[in-house]
Amino acid sequence: MIYFDHAATTPMHPDVLQTMTPYMLEQFGNPSSVHAFGRSGRAAIDAARRTLASELNAKPNEIIFTAGGTESDNYAILGAAMKYQTQGRHVITTRFEHHAVLHAFEELEKRGFDVTYLEVPESGVVTIDALAAALRPDTILVSVMFGNNEVGTLQPIKEMGQLLNKQNILFHTDAVQVFGKLSLDVEECQIDLLSASSHKINGPKGVGMLYVRTGVQLEAQSYGGEQERKRRAGTENVAGIVGFAKAVQLIVAERDILKAQSEDLRHLLLERLDTASISYEQNGHKGLPHIVNLYFPRVEIEPFLIMLDMRGIAVSSGSACTAGSIEPSHVLSAMYGENDRTRQSVRISFGRGNDKEQVELLAQGLIDVVKSFQNK
């Protein structure tokens, strides 16, 4: 099998697994315990917190460890809205956010909040003017994803952050697809809340983080112990947190190389499709180098994916969080409206382990399968 679905999840790096193993076998203590076993776990968490904070130009005590991107998104959105609702009950997001964000805003609507969903143009980039026009005196929170998980487009986060900071409106960004892959600076971008996940950067599943700017308060979303400075109850996943930090160190050290490799592989794939005169269009403006989303007219996506899978090639039709049925992409629907494009597009995402030989096989597989549909 050749894997081209790194936007869904990534294989764990061997060095990450090696780093985690001692914290499952020998240094297994509860980090809240006062004895040596516990202190060892606490020291490991503190070191990991410093690593993640450094990558964001943040302070270590601004990092909260969670069970993943979904929990981080939920905690940021629900926690902030409920904490600051006395200052206003208007919140803003976009129509092509990850479901972890969209469903959190739907929950806020049920709780009586007024939600504005910004429209997304075909470019996949929300404009500053559109955001500015949606702001109201009672707006307390805006959430816009940094890089889209289906089409890869990047939003003008820095400009949005500067706009919202001037008006004292909290700004959250889902940076799950961006963290580690691009350099992020929460101070430069004036971000108040930022979500990230380990398994998107060759770290373990089941661990993520939420950056919370000093001074920003969140209403608790879990109840129990006093872990994470009383902000997130539950015994910390020490091995996962250690693995997350190691994954960050590895990807930062190789970031420029991995970015260049993804760009080269993307260029090679499109070049092969063009040479074969395949009918296709790219969805959205080029953004994250590791994601390319292609529309193939007259292609039935479910049998298309199965035919590729039978050839040993793994790609997807969009977010893995909608797996189990091939539904129209809400991201593409937001960008292009309800049409065939939402059912005839495929997401290809590159990562560690992919090379030109694999992309040649991918291209030939795409060419053969697409022609079988388009030449009927």
TrEMBL record:
It catalyses: (sulfur carrier)-H + L-cysteine = (sulfur carrier)-SH + L-alanine. It is an enzyme of class 2 (transferase). One of its GO terms (molecular function) is iron-sulfur cluster binding. Transmembrane segments: none annotated. Pfam families: Aminotran_5 (PF00266). It comes from the Bacteria. The keyword NAD does not apply. Its cofactor is pyridoxal 5'-phosphate. InterPro entries: Aminotrans_V_dom (IPR000192), Aminotrans_V_PyrdxlP_BS (IPR020578), Cysteine_dSase (IPR016454), PyrdxlP-dep_Trfase (IPR015424), PyrdxlP-dep_Trfase_major (IPR015421), PyrdxlP-dep_Trfase_small (IPR015422). Keywords: Iron, Iron-sulfur, Metal-binding, Pyridoxal phosphate, Transferase. Coiled coil: none annotated. Signal peptide: none annotated. Its EC number is 2.8.1.7. Residues 2-362 form the Aminotransferase class V domain. Belongs to the class-V pyridoxal-phosphate-dependent aminotransferase family. NifS/IscS subfamily. This is cysteine desulfurase. It comes from Exiguobacterium oxidotolerans.
